[in-house]
């Protein structure tokens, strides 16, 4: 079971590299086995081109390392907080991809300017509030997760599978590690398109609610019609 989890998490980590979302050792992906409550995550600072499934570090939901010879990602506490708060998700990716990070650094949510966005995010990609000095100086990584959870107090993390951490970078998630990677790739793509859209027409109002509904619900929910 753990071998399979590690393999899936390795593949998600490699996917975000293949898709150009990661430079050097920036970013990480994780996955959880909901039956055992165990989480596998990329080891800290290990180059992607030398990683193996055996390098993935396994911890419980409280951060106790169960298996692995290496230190887990420095973002582990953020991942664990999201797994505890969002029981429907099974994988998380964190990158510093260029355009999504630019929106995060600007402290701006990404509006749903078009149907590509609406196919995957039911509304804006939200941005968190800035962390306080006390939060930064304290358990910073855990508090990053808590800031994300606060931002989703009135949002559905399944309908909005990603977030921008103010001044930092994006996180995305899904039902498993590869879907989390997929959503991370989509998030970067719509961030890039949104930047160009806002540059070309700063006054654009984005899609109507009717068009947002039409595109989101053709791919999601009981009445989805997209695909086979």
Please, could you describe this protein's structure?
- The protein is an alpha+beta fold and 228 residues long.
- It has one domain: 3-Layer(aba) Sandwich (L-fuculose-1-phosphate Aldolase), CATH 3.40.225.10.
- It has eight helices and seven strands; from the N terminus they run H-E-E-E-E-H-E-H-H-H-H-E-E-H-H.
- The protein has a seven-stranded antiparallel sheet with strand order 4-3-2-1-5-7-6, sandwiched between helices.
- Strand 3 and strand 4 form a beta hairpin.
- Helix 2 packs parallel to helix 6.
- The longest helix has 24 residues.
- The chain starts with a helix and ends in a 9-residue tail after the last helix.
- The model has no long low-confidence stretch (mean pLDDT 96).
Structural class: alpha+beta
- Overall residue-averaged pLDDT value: 96
Q: What is the CATH homologous superfamily assignment? A: Class II aldolase/adducin N-terminal domain
What general form does the structure show? Answer: globular
Number of strands: 7
Topology:
Layout: H1 2-18, E1 28-33, E2 38-41, E3 57-59, E4 65-67, H2 76-85, E5 91-94, H3 98-106, H4 115-118, H5 133-137, H6 140-151, E6 162-164, E7 170-174, H7 177-200, H8 209-219
Feature tags:
7 strands; L-fuculose-1-phosphate Aldolase; 228 residues; alpha+beta; seven-stranded antiparallel beta sheet; single chain
């Amino acid at each position: 079971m753990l071998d399979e989890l590690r393999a899936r998490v390795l593949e998600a980590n490699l996917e975000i590299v293949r898709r150009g979302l990661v430079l050097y050792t920036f970013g990480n992906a994780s996955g959880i086995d909901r039956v055992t409550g165990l989480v596998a995550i990329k080891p800290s600072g290990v180059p992607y081109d030398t990683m193996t499934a055996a390098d993935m570090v396994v911890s419980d939901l409280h951060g106790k390392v169960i298996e692995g010879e290496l230190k887990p990602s420095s973002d582990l506490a953020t991942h664990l907080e999201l797994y505890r708060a969002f029981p429907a998700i099974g994988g998380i990716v964190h990158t510093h991809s260029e355009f999504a990070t630019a929106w995060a650094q600007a402290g701006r949510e990404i509006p749903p300017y078009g149907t590509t966005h609406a196919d995957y995010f039911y509304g804006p990609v939200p941005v968190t509030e800035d962390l306080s000095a006390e939060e930064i100086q304290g358990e910073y990584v855990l508090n990053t997760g808590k800031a994300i959870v606060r931002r989703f107090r009135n949002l559905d993390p399944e309908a909005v599978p990603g977030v921008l951490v103010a001044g930092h970078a994006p996180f995305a998630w899904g039902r498993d590690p590869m879907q989390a990677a997929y959503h991370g790739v989509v998030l970067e793509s719509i961030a890039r398109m949104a930047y160009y859209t806002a540059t070309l027409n700063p006054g654009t109002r984005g899609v109507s609610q009717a068009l947002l509904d039409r595109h989101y619900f053709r791919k999601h929910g009981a009445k989805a019609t997209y695909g086979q």
